[in-house]
Amino acid sequence: MATTVSHTFAPDLSPIAIRNFSKERYVSPEWLERERTDLWATSWLVAGVACDVREAGQFITFDIGAESIIIARGADRLLRAMHNTCTHRGTKLVTEPMGSLRKFVCPYHAWVYGLDGSLESVPGAARFSNGVPREKLGLRPVEVEEALGLIFVRLTPGALSLADFLAPLHEAIGTYRLDLMDVTNDQTVSHLCNWKAIIDNFAELYHVPFLHPIHRRMFDCATAPIALFDHGHTAVYVEGGVTDSGFPTPEVPSDMQAMQLEAFGLDPADYRGLVGAIRPALQRAKRALAGEQGLAYDSFTDAQLTDVWQFNLFPNVILSVTPESAWLMRSRPDVTDPGRSILDMITLVRFHGEESPEAAGSDEADGARIGTHFRLNGPRPADYIRPPRDAFTHEDIIAGRKTMTVTIDEDISLLGRVQQGMASRGFDSVWLSDEECRVQHFHDALDASLGA
C-alpha cells in the first residue's frame, strides 16, 4: 500500500508519525555491527545491473561490508551468485569489479572453480589425507535474482520473496526498461559520512533550493509529490522543464529552459511571458520527435517525458529515471568505521532510434549531464565499450579532480560536514520536519529490520 503526499512550502502534515531519532545510528560501532548481522545479511540488495552479465562468462563482484559476492552468467545461461572466497584457505578469488572468464582460479594455490561455483580442480589432490570432497568444497552459494534490469542478492534466505519486495514499485520502474539500457559511466567514491546520511539526503527536497541553485532554473522541487511504500521504499516525482514555484516566475525562460527548448527546435524568445507553457511544449515536441524516429513512447505519460522520477529502494539504492536514462546510486557501509561509506553511481542510457543533430550536439552543462534528461538518444555507437569503474575519494571531489555531476558534488561536499557535526557534543538527535517524512519512513523500516 502506498501513501502519497504533495509537498509545498506549507506542506500537509506527514502521513506517518515523525519520531526523530538519536545520532547513535550514524556514529556508533555497535549500530554498524547490528546492521551487518540484521540488515545487510537479510535484505534483498542491488548487486549490479543486468546489462553487465548478459553473456555467458560475464561476472560482476559486489562488496557489502566484509562480504564479497561473485555473480556470474554460466555457459547454461543461468545466473548464479557465490561468496568470493576460496574454500581452501579463504583467499579472495576475484578483485576486479567485472569481467569475463571461463573459470575462477585462486591466485594462491590454483584451485579452480566453474562459473557455477563447483570445485573443478585441486593441484596435488592426492596429498590431502582428509580427501578433497568437491561436493562440499564448492563456492558457497548466495540467493540471486534478476528483476527490473537489476541484479539482486540476499545473503541469508528469508520469507519475503523478491517479487513481493518489489511489488509496490515494479510497474512504475518497469515502464522505463532498465534492462534495455547500457552503462555509460561508472563511479565509486569513498565518502566521509555514514551510509545512511547519503540515503537521508536523497530522501528529502528540503535542502534543494539552498544547496542546488541550478535546480531552481529547471525543476519544481517545492511541489513535488512523494509516495511512501511498503518495505521501506519511497518515491518523489519532480516536474522538469519548469522553474521552482517557491520563487517568482521569471518573465523569460531560464538558461536551462532555453537549452531544453533549443534541443527540440523551439525558440526561447517565443516563450517570453509564457514560461508556464514551456513544460507542455517540450512534452509535445519530444513526443513528436520520438514518433518521427519510430520510438515507442506510448507507454509513457506526458509528465514522464519531461519529469524525473526518483525511487529509493530499501535499504540503500537511489534510482533516478527518465525514458532515456537512469542514475543508479548505491550507498554502502565501511567495514569498520561508521563515519565512512562508499557511494556508487552508475549512469545508464537507452540507445535507440536514429541520431539527430540535436541529440548529437547535446551539451553537458557544467558537467551536470542535464541534457540526458530531455534529449533522445541515438543508436549505440559502433565503438561503444562499457567504461571501467572509476574509484576515487571524497577529497578528489572537493579538489575538483573528479566530478559526479554538479548536484552530486554539492551533496558530497556537504555530507562530510554533516558527519563532522554529528560527532559533536552539541548534537544529540535528528529533528525532522513533516517535509522529511521519506527520511522517517526509511528509518522506520531500518528499525524494523533491526528488531527495534
Q: What is the arithmetic mean of pLDDT?
A: 91
- Write down the overall geometry: globular
Structural class: alpha+beta
Tell me the domain tally.
Answer: 2
Q: What is the strand content? A: 15-25%
Largest sheet composition: 10 strands, mixed
Low-confidence stretches: 354-373
Number of strands: 22
Report the total helices.
13
Head-to-tail CA distance between termini: 22 Å
The CATH topology name of the largest domain reads Naphthalene 1,2-dioxygenase Alpha Subunit, Chain A, domain 1
CATH superfamily of the largest domain: Naphthalene 1,2-dioxygenase Alpha Subunit, Chain A, domain 1
- Proportion of helical residues: 10-25%
Task: Please name the CATH architecture of the largest domain.
Answer: Alpha-Beta Complex
Which CATH class of the largest domain applies here?
A: Alpha Beta
Q: Rg, please?
A: 23 Å
Question: Can you give me a brief rundown of this structure?
Answer:
This protein is an alpha+beta fold and 452 residues long. The protein is built from 13 helices and 22 strands. Strand 9 and strand 10 form a beta hairpin.
